[in-house]
Design brief:
About 40% of the residues lie in helices and about 15% in strands. The chain is of the alpha/beta class. The chain has a seven-stranded mixed beta sheet, with helices on both faces. It has a three-stranded antiparallel beta sheet with strand order 11-14-13, with helices on one face. Helix 10 packs parallel to helix 12 and helix 11 packs across helix 12. The structure holds pyridoxal-5'-phosphate (PLP). The site of pyridoxal-5'-phosphate has 11 residues, from helix 3.
Length: about 375
């Protein structure tokens, strides 16, 4: 079994290199393993207010940031029921499975959806978004997937947001696999609602949904005629985050874990953290190419948080994943439909450093050579 330095292995010896959940640093786990405290007491109130300001720092915003118990999918719904009204028209970027799902959530909620589609492996460009916005009148919001986890493509979010704002549309961003992994400038890019989940680059277990919301977003949430909501009421939660008195019982242990993870991020420095993950992507992609494997995503838009690659010719992705697990204990992900059998996905987000990626490349190399490729 390969020896890895940052190594909280699973009990059966496996090591996660899937695009979430990601490895959790022992320091984060230690901070979670504490007795419960009153959720309305001074300790939690201080923690919530500190958490808010640290989250503002990483999201690059002076606006509201809030944390709900939930997963990334809850973030789609929470964003839409707060910022949209039934029957609003929304334009959704779709270049993979998660954009596809975001569009479906909007349809479930009775929004009028127009899809802005690009082939898998390619980005939805700002030009495509601009063309749709020129053809469609009265688009209330653009729903953009920043990083498409199913293909390993990062969409050009700053440019997309610019064309959306030029026609007065709100910008709702699925940043589930981009927040804390790559440049994401909530205020400078004019993003109105930024969704993410604790199990990705935030270095925490699953269970928290995080949302950064602009002033414009909070104003939209306060309009009459919106969706009925109670748990997903952003105004109520934003007020609670400011005062430190949350409206419902929060996931105390997970909030403690996130607070510690944020300390680690700020100790490293936000820009250094982004750079580290981009460097890992660059190292991994060129090593895979050297092994004779074929990366999937358009190289100009290749993600810093997840790298997608074709398995060796003639081998199914699930078989390749199983062989790598047998070889090293390293757990890769296969693709999602329709690329389930034809794509391997490797996570580089969160608590990940060069030695783990080197070990991953070595294991992939052994399996690839044994398969007669590379
Ligand atoms: C880009 C993106 N959006 C949304 C989701 C859904 O998040 P969850 O599975 O936490 O509900 C995921 C999950 O991987 C994702 O990668």
């Amino acid at each position: 079994m390969t020896s890895l330095p940052n190594d909280p292995r699973l009990s059966d010896g496996r090591w996660l290199r899937i695009p979430g959940p990601t490895p959790v640093p022992p320091r984060v786990f230690q901070s979670m393993a504490q007795p419960m405290v009153p959720h309305r007491g001074a300790e939690m109130s201080g923690l919530v207010r500190n958490l808010r300001s640290k989250l503002q720092e990483v999201h690059r915003t002076d606006g509201d940031v809030m944390v709900w118990s939930g997963s990334g999918s809850a973030g789609w719904e929470a964003a839409l029921v707060n910022l949209c009204r039934p029957g609003d028209k929304v334009a959704v970027t779709v270049c993979g499975d998660f954009g596809r799902r975001f569009a479906r959530v909007a349809e479930h909620l009775g929004l009028r959806v127009c899809r802005i589609e690009a082939p898998w492996g390619e980005p939805v460009t700002a030009e495509l978004v601009a063309a749709t916005l020129a053809a469609e009148r009265d688009v209330h919001a653009v729903l953009a997937t920043h990083n498409e986890t199913s293909t390993g493509v990062t969409n050009p979010l700053a440019e997309i947001a610019e064309v959306a704002r030029a026609v007065g549309a709100m910008v709702i961003v699925d940043a589930v696999s981009s927040a804390a992994a790559m440049p994401l400038e909530t205020d400078a890019w004019g993003l109105d609602w930024v969704i993410s989940g604790s199990q990705k680059a935030w270095m925490c277990p699953p269970g928290l949904m995080i949302a950064a919301v602009s002033d414009r977003g909070m104003q939209a949430a306060a309009r009459d005629g919106g969706y009925p909501r109670f748990f997903w009421d952003a105004e109520k939660l934003a007020g609670g985050m400011r005062s430190g008195q949350l409206p419902t019982t929060p996931a105390v242990s997970l909030l403690r874990g996130l607070d510690t993870a944020l300390d680690m991020m700020l100790e490293e420095g936000v820009e250094q953290m982004w750079r580290r993950q981009a460097d890992l992507r660059d190292y991994l992609r060129s090593a895979l190419i050297e092994l004779g494997l074929v990366p999937y995503a358009n190289p100009a838009y290749a993600s810093a948080s997840i790298t997608s690659v074709r398995p060796p010719a003639g081998m199914h992705a699930a078989r390749f994943r199983d062989l790598v697990r047998e070889d090293s204990g390293i757990e890769l992900a296969t693709g999602q439909q329709p690329e389930a059998e034809t794509m391997i996905r490797i996570g580089t987000m969160g608590w990940t450093h060069l030695p783990e990626i080197e070990a991953t490349v070595e294991s992939i190399g052994r399996v690839t050579r044994a398969a007669g490729a590379g």
